[in-house]
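Exercise (ungraded).
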Amino acid sequence: MPKVPCAIVGSGNIGTDLLMKLQRSPLLEPVAMVGIDPTSEGLARARELGVEASPEGIDWLLERAAHLGVAILFEATTARVHAAAAPRYREAGITAVDLTPAHVGPLVVPTVNLEEHLGEPNVNMITCGGQATAPVVAAVSRVGPVPYAEIVSTVASLSAGLGTRQNVDEFTRTTARSLEEVGGAAKGKAICIFNPADPPILMRNTVFCALADGYDEAAVAASIEAMVAEVAEYVPGYRLKSPPVFDPGPYATPGGPAAGRVVSLLEVEGAGDWFPPYAGNLDIMTASAVRVGEALSMAAGTRFLRNTPAACGGAPSPPRTPQEVTP
Amino acid sequence: MKRDFRLTDSTLRDGSHALAHQFTPDQVRSVVSALDAAGVPVIEISHGDGLGGSSFNYGFSHTDERELLRAAAEVRRTAKLAVLLVPGIGVADDLHEVREIGVDVARIAVHCTEADISEQHIGLAKRLGMEAVGFLMMAHMTEPKELTEQAKLLEGYGADCVYVVDSAGALTIDGARARVAALKANLGCQVGLHAHNNLSLAVANSLAAYEEGADQLDGCTTGLGAGAGNCPTEVLVAACEKSGIATGVDPFGVMDAAQETVRPLKPTQGIIDRDGLILGYAGVYGSFLLHAQRAAERFGVPTADILLELGRRKAVGGQEDMIIDVAVELSRQAAAAAARS
């Protein structure tokens, strides 16, 4: 099956790491990267990797999108840029996978709720903390009610760019929201810590889930372990540091009384593509975005087949014109 | 009344750690009344880990901190009310509500190398008409020169004062002196010291900081506070009076507040026992103590071993979740060692 052409908007470090991962994808073909700085090292790297790259930004991309057959794009700029560009992508029939905190589309985690959002023109990748922890909350809430979930994400100071550092509140709020909307907790709270230790620490995440009366330890633990294995399929360095720890309560949580809690200690080691391995927080964002892009490409292929059965002769083809992916 | 520096009492914030964040509105009213009557100029009230700190990770508050602040606002007459906010735990928006309750001073706390995460919070505090204080925690983990660079960032965001915060009680007199002196030499804004007593140096370090020009100092009555406790307010005031340093605070008034209002709360921390000393010796965040003791009991490993390992891993303030991690690992290692022998 031919690969689906895709583009990257943003030529910074996230864009470069995405490009390296997309070039390994069996389903997606990165064909263009755009930025706004003619001297951008990211654009130069993209050209070296054989991808068309332009400093003329989104205008350049949208002019050529039909010609290049771009069906999916990855937004690795800023929330403001994405919020302004999102309607134009939609109009051009390009599905946007948004790595910024713009929240134009629904929050998605590949292992939890991606399938229900495959028809959306725009999906949001939450935050690194959300990608790392919402799946664990979802794993607990699929076996029993979670009145309250709380996560602590600790990242190496060196791995947090200025954008993140100046918007810590946005990180904690969006991550907390994902624990509710994606994880299924009645109430969510997120805490974010930057650790300057040298050598840098791997990204660590602690997930506390409050458990309702009558919880089944074995079922909860098995569900968490299964979920972690699923995430590790697309983020190979994602792992539990030890089996989930159960502490009997009672606890009076902000989401109501809980009979006990389960604590999951996770770490994320990056694949070491463009970012150093300690920056698991960045790796989980780009790896998850690629996973989402791949799922969208398969959904788009199916839709194309369904819409024009005669033209395809059975094998699903990727859409060649942008309009065909419009849901 | 004349005073040579401004004293902030944090019994109802840092002291909250020693009571596992269980302060009630009645207790707050009686402590605030006593401190206010004694002339303490600033009283800090929040969860021990600052606004929004009520959590599994740090311990749930008995009473919502906004309710505690309202109780304080009812009874204070001249004292200013302060809150602590740690970016990453609390959010800038929390400041709107506390400002309405009547809080005058927002103290924004960051790890000593991470000043640039506080720009939004300091900026909002100023826009709301509050005094903004930058708090550089775990200041022993960085040298005076680097600490100065971070302090300059805070001043640039609008901080009216920048504190050297010895969260682990690990600074010796020379270390405290050098850091305060470096900030005084390079900043235009005020400079403060927040001392802990793990090495029994909290009062001495505070006096040394005063000699280097510190404009603000912190204490907690009875030394109530995380780990081995804070600089005891009543002792600092008495020592200042005897040294001819004007505090503007009535020494007998704070002694009475400490003895009659705070001691009856029977805190479990605030003493320099072995664990308290190890925190200061190994440079570990004081608030970890209670959590480390609980984890030690839960996983059957010595508290001291957990604290020393946290020091080796250079855990920063707020990383209470790492305590469980370390305790699980130590207990696993102990089991493996037992199996081998």
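Further reading is listed at the end of the chapter. For now, observe: Chain B is about 45% helix and 15% strand. The mean pLDDT of chain B is 96.
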